[in-house]
Amino acid sequence: MENKISRKKILLTGASGTVGIETLQHLLEHTDYEITVFDLKNQNSVKKLAPFRSRVEIMYGDISNRQEVLKVAQNKDVAIHLAAVIPPLADIDPEMAYSVNVRGTENLINALEKNSPDCYLIFSSSISVYGDRMKNPQICITDILQPSPGDQYGETKVLCESLIRKSKLSWSIFRLAAIMGNHKISKLMFHMPLDTPMEICTPKDTGRAFAKAIENQKKLEKQIFNLGGGADCVITYASFLDKMFAEFGLGEADFPQKAFAEKNFHCGILKDGEDLDNILGFRQQNLNDYFEMVRKKIHPLQKKITFIFKSIIKKWLLSQSEPYQAFKKGNVKKMNHFFNQLEKEKLENVLF
């Protein structure tokens, strides 16, 4: 009589998100994994997870509800925790961000400690925990954690990391660079200074890293790593915007002075990002791959229509710029948040 090979039981939270879907697809390449996904039930998550119904166990619920989390955390070997409220919603509704991100993580830790004490927890943190790095963009995991003022998301991630490190579980924390995927244009685009050096990583490569971490637990556990795309994925924010605007048919990102903040955001270059890739070998894409992916998603007709209305669209976008509105209205408190100190004469010259 043949011995049955025991299948690793994997729990994936936030599976319908940009990184979650990619992680799920990479996990499904392993026939020896028994996968349970846990996500909030809404139109978007049901639609995205529908193609996987026959291959994974889908459980819907609220991660901030302790009882619901207890149900999905039974007899799990690995938990990949991606569920989170991200910006701009995290900044708009900080209470929800705290409830989902911090309380949700605490619920998951408690549930796993109770029902799956030997479980390996892999957590997605963020580069936002380092805060504003304009003066020193080279980032290492040993750097001080200091989210920018008002960055609710970054603050929740710092709290989550602390909870995980104090837990009784085996764990790894990946601090993610700018994961460029299905980003919608929002007022947040004006919060990042144009000369910010940013390192991106594609959702596919990020998902690959989380999936590969399972096989490399011994090399990763009880450690924190920075996760980014590497040297081939570094670009300034100004160049990134110009390329994106061109792809969408918006021409140049030619906004007036003071449309973009000069400080109090995040991003930078992950100086020790090679450490994780040396273990996992997850990097397979670069900036060219990313822009090609963007290009394929934009219908030629959509691009033509956007080009015709580009002036109106850019005017509307500018109206969403909080730094620009603060500058125009002379809101000193907000100007101090978004801008470096300016001479009075310079202020008067720029106002119009």
TrEMBL record:
Pathway: Carbohydrate metabolism; galactose metabolism
Enzyme category, top tier: isomerase
Cofactor: NAD(+)
Location of the NAD-dependent epimerase/dehydratase domain: 10-184
Keyword Isomerase: yes
InterPro entries: Epimerase_deHydtase, NAD(P)-bd_dom_sf
Ranges in coiled-coil conformation: none
EC number: 5.1.3.2
Domain of life: Bacteria
Keywords associated with the record: Carbohydrate metabolism, Galactose metabolism, Isomerase, NAD
Catalytic activity entry: UDP-alpha-D-glucose = UDP-alpha-D-galactose
Cited Pfam families: Epimerase (PF01370)
Presence of the UniProt keyword Flavoprotein in the record: no
Entry similarity comment: Belongs to the NAD(P)-dependent epimerase/dehydratase family.
Designated name of the protein: UDP-glucose 4-epimerase
Organism: Flavobacterium chungbukense
